[in-house]
Structure formats: structure tokens, C-alpha cells
Amino acid sequence: MATIKDIAHKAGVSIATVSRVLNYDPSLSVSDDTRKRIFEVAEKLNYRTLRERSGQHMKERSRIGLINWYSDQEEMLDPYYMAIRLSIEKECFLRQLDLVNLYCKADTMKQDLGGEPVDGIIAIGRFESDDLDRFPADLDHIVFVDSSPDESRFDSVVIDLRKSVVEVLNYLHELGHKEIGFIGGHNLFNQKPVKDERELAFTDWMKSRGLFRPEYIYTSGNLYSEDGYQLMKEAIGQDKVPTAFFIENDSMAVGALRAIYEAKLRVPQDISIVGFNDIAISAFLQPPLTTVKVHVEFMGETAVDLLTERMTTKREIPKKVVLPTKLIVRDSCQ
Predict the structure, then answer these.
(1) How many angstroms separate the CA atoms of 306 and 40, rounded?
(2) Span 33-75, pLDDT tens digits
(3) Distance (Å, whole) CA 132 – CA 137
(4) Contact assessment for residue 202 and residue 165, using Cβ atoms and an 8 Å cutoff
(5) pLDDT tens digits, residue range 67-121?
(6) Could you report the per-residue pLDDT of 294-308, keeping only the tens digit for each?
(7) Where are the alpha helices (DSSP H) in the chain?
(8) How distant, in Å, are the alpha carbons of 133, 151, 194, 241, 270 from that of 128?
(9) Could you say which DSSP state residue 289 is in?
(10) Rounded to two decimals, what is the model's pTM?
(11) pLDDT category, 218, cuts 50, 70, 90?
């Protein structure tokens, strides 16, 4: 595994700067370009190809549009989609596919794609069915990554969020936790909140065991470190505080840890924490974060596989690939 020293060397900055950027230190004054470079280096050093490549590629170069619902700045605040994007970019490079990076905001996508045509699209993000009218109506060669807005027409690569949440809650319950809180967010996309299966699965599991307490649900409008910080501050300021928290992603968990330390509480002695995604910084935290590993590299590779195979074979039946996750037990729970 790469170390902070490796990241600092590749990014051309000090070890202290890397540490503070990866821990979302709000007092650090550094340019967005430097932040982005550090996160991208961290993700690239964490990258492991999951299969041997044959070296074969399509006979003619195809032009692929990459739609990312996160901007550059949002990627730095929550690098989960950055990791997926980087894996797609690397796979397209290896297959000699021309990749056009686009950002899906407002109504700009159709306009952006209205110039030189693309042969296919890979769309990263939590898209829903009513977002589809913003995609080219005559293009079936679209693969969605991390959502499946129309599995009867389009290929998709997703993870089993419900199964992952159940594994986390079973683990915390086996440790003896019954007072379990949830910290998460409701991303706004095109001025509407986006549903998240993790909160629904958490609620269903807790209710099925008679453990659900609505006052232990803390959510905000975003999924960033600062949101996790503010929500945890709110939670630990109450008279009754859960002994454990499941946090919707690792970026929010970073902020939650900071709030706990500021309150002179200890992890895991006072509060146990489980994150989600296993982004590159999770193993560098203090304590190292117990989290759910999402195989983002393989998500990107699989998306490119699906798209090139469908373009080559003219396959009409769509495929939905559901990838497993893995609970990574580190030191933030007891």
C-alpha cells in the first residue's frame, strides 16, 4: 500500500500538506489545483488492476463521452467518484478509446454532446429515471455507473447497497451495539434530492429488530467532510448519544472523527464508527477507519467492458452487473 510519503513525493508537496489535505483540515490554505493533484495521486497509487489485459482493442478508435455528475471541486470533497473516473480513464487509454470528459449540470449535456458525435457514453453518478430526458434519445450505448435508471434499456454497474448495510449492522450488533446512529446526506441534483438506499436499508434493519430510533438519524444536503463534522457535532450534543454510527461515506466519516476529537471523546472507546467506500485516505486516518470497500477500479473497468462489448456485438439486451462489497475491519470499532 502507498504511504503518505509516497503521495507527497509524487504530488511534489510536503508530507504535512498531504496529511492535512487528506484529513480535510479546514485551516489549511492551499490551492484547489494542489488539493486535486494530491487526491488524484492518492487514488492512482491505490489503484490495482484486477485482471490481466490481453492487449486487444477495437479495430477503430471510438469516441466515448464520460458524464460525471460531480464537478472538479466536488470530487475533491468526496473522492469516491474521482476514483471511478480515474479507473475509466485508465481503461479507455489502455483500449485506445478517445475519451471526452463532460460534466452533467443543468441542461448543458445535450448541448455539449451536440458537436462531434460520440459512439457511447459512460455516466457516473446516482441518476434516476427522470434524468434520462437529458441524455441523447437516439443513443442506446450508455452505461450507468453507481445507478440503474432504466435497466430495461441501458447497461449499468452497481453495488448491492442493501446487502452491504446489513453486513455493517450485523457486525456492530455482534460487537454489542444496540444504540446505533446514522449520518448521511441527500444530494441535490438538478434541484431535487436524490434517494439513497443506505438510509432506507439502515431504517428497515433497525426496525426489524425493534432498535430504530428516528432521533438517531442525522442527514444534510451533501455528503462532504464538513457535513459529517456538523452532523456529528449535533449528535454528540444531545442528551443521549449512540454508541456507534454508520456513516454514509468515508468523507463524512473524516469530518465526524474531527467533531468527536474536539469534544474530547475517543474512537472507538466512546463511539464506534463505520464508513463506506474505502477511499484511499481511509487507512491513513487515526484510528484507521473500519469501512465497506467498494471495488471502484473494477466498477470502471466493467463499465468500459460493457460499453465496448455492446458497441462491437450490437447486443440489444441490456446487462446489469451487481458487484460485491467487502467489510474492511480496522480500528474504529470495538
Answers:
(1) 25
(2) 888 888 888 877 764 434 434 444 444 689 999 998 888 888 8
(3) 8
(4) yes
(5) 988 888 888 888 898 899 999 999 998 898 999 877 665 455 554 555 578 899 9
(6) 999 999 999 999 999
(7) 4-11, 15-22, 32-46, 72-77, 80-94, 108-112, 161-174, 197-208, 225-236, 250-262, 296-313
(8) 10, 11, 8, 35, 39
(9) P
(10) 0.81
(11) very high
- Does the domain at 1-46 match CATH 3.40.718.10? Answer given as no
Rounded to whole angstroms, the Cα distance separating 187 from 255 reads: 17
Burial level of 317, CB count in 10 A (0-12/13-18/19+)? Answer: exposed
Going from the C-alpha of 197 to that of each of 55, 175, 194, 248, the distances in angstroms are 38, 24, 10, 10
DSSP labels, 3-16: -HHHHHHHHTS-HH
- Parallel, antiparallel or unpaired: strands 192-193 and 188-189: antiparallel
Q: Tell me which fold the domain 56-159+295-323 belongs to.
A: Rossmann fold (3.40.50)
CA angle 195, 197, 200 (to 5 degrees): 95
Cβ contact 272:241 at 8 Å: no
Domain 161-294 annotated CATH 3.40.50.300: no
Beta carbons within 10 angstroms of residue 304's beta carbon: 25
Residue 228 contacts residue 183 (beta carbons within 8 Å): yes
Portions of the chain given CATH number 3.40.50.2300: 56-159+295-323, 161-294
Please answer whether residues 314 and 275 qualify as being in contact, where contact means their C-beta atoms are separated by less than 8 angstroms: no
d(CA 18, CA 1): 16
The pLDDT-based confidence of 134 (bands split at 50, 70, 90) is confident
